[in-house]
Amino acid sequence: MKPQTKKTIDDLLGSAKLRRTGPRRTVLEILMDAKRPQTVDEIMTAMSRGCANKVTVYRTLESLVVAGLVHRAFVHKRAEHFELADRCTEAQCHPHFTCTSCGKTFCLTDLSLPLIKGLKKGFVFHKQQVRVDGLCPACS
Amino acid sequence: MKPQTKKTIDDLLGSAKLRRTGPRRTVLEILMDAKRPQTVDEIMTAMSRGCANKVTVYRTLESLVVAGLVHRAFVHKRAEHFELADRCTEAQCHPHFTCTSCGKTFCLTDLSLPLIKGLKKGFVFHKQQVRVDGLCPACS
DNA sequence: AGCTAAATGCAACTAAGTTGCAAGTAAAAA
DNA sequence: TTTTTACTTGCAACTTAGTTGCATTTAGCT
Ligand SMILES: [Mn+2]
Ligand SMILES: [Mn+2]
Ligand SMILES: [Zn+2]
Ligand SMILES: [Zn+2]
């Protein structure tokens, strides 16, 4: 890990008022390196040595989600997928494209849709999420 | 059940080339009556008497999904939620609103967003789904 | 009525995620 | 720097949505 990255990670944890622990640093680093949302299983594999307990990874992710550093992006094949919360606005995360053939997911970080209009009286809008499916370049 | 409804259900199954069995008729009727997407658990409860086996309900839903009569609307609290496939277009199901306070979900059948534009070369668009969260009238 | 492929039911299984509790440690206090 | 304490971790046991294999039943056909 570059010292620069380490600084960023510790700053992130500090500004979120979270203790700088090994598992938190490792999980954050893995999510920073990942180019798509990760399952707990994928994160565990990426930890290989420096490997924390599965329960710790779940609790680490939960603390990062509560702190707003990480988002639960979507559920696919019964597994929650996590990603860094940067590249999302308050009202809308970037859309995700999942290939129905190979199952891979792509972050559409440079695309977005207008916010939904016309919610009935009494409904308070917080956020919208968009999922797209189809075929990826490798499968089409 | 009104004889009219029975006719409709049998027509649906017939046009989907599915055998008209008890569980299929019951599950379809439950989904027609439901005003929000249902979990297998909710469907089982609604079946009370006439109750089919859990595995049968899963397999029934799968056959209805493959036939295009039913959609997997979303996953909430680790459970798949199913609904009738009417009130959706080929390219987009109606959006769903989930209240972050009480957990209830509302079908926004009369709202929609434009289809996403600008997919990179090689990607083939099939369908998009939109989920909104916030507070429902009872919780806001 | 008899045939056959499709559907059902049961039991056992899989796997993502959770919980309780004892032990360890980051960070604040002394 | 040492002590203190609340927060964090690890382990084992658990929960639960969903799946699989196989024997039995049945819808739809002839
Ligand atoms: Mn993403
Ligand atoms: Mn709906
Ligand atoms: Zn693909
Ligand atoms: Zn509510």
Describe this protein's structure.
The structure is a homodimer of 140-residue chains. In chain A, the strands form 2 sheets. Chain A has a 3-stranded mixed beta sheet with strand order 4-3-5, with no helix packed on it. Chain A has a two-stranded antiparallel sheet with strand order 1-2. Chain A has helices at 3-15, 22-33, 40-47, 54-67; strands spanning 70-76, 79-84, 96-99, 105-107, 124-135. The first copy, chain A, has 4 helices and 5 strands, in the order H-H-H-H-E-E-E-E-E. The mean pLDDT of chain A is 95. In chain A, helix 1 crosses helix 2 (22-33). Chain A is an alpha+beta fold. The termini of chain A are far apart. Chain A has one domain (3-134): Winged helix-like DNA-binding domain superfamily/Winged helix DNA-binding domain (Arc Repressor Mutant, subunit A). Chain A binds chain B through residues 75, 78, 95, 97, 100, 106, 108, 110-111, 113-114, 116-138, 140, and chain B through 75, 78, 95, 97, 100, 106, 108, 110-111, 113-114, 116-137, 140. Strand 5 (124-135) of chain A pairs antiparallel with strand 5 (124-135) of chain B. The site of one manganese (II) ion (MN) has 6 residues of chain B, from loops. The structure holds a DNA duplex (30 and 30 nucleotides).
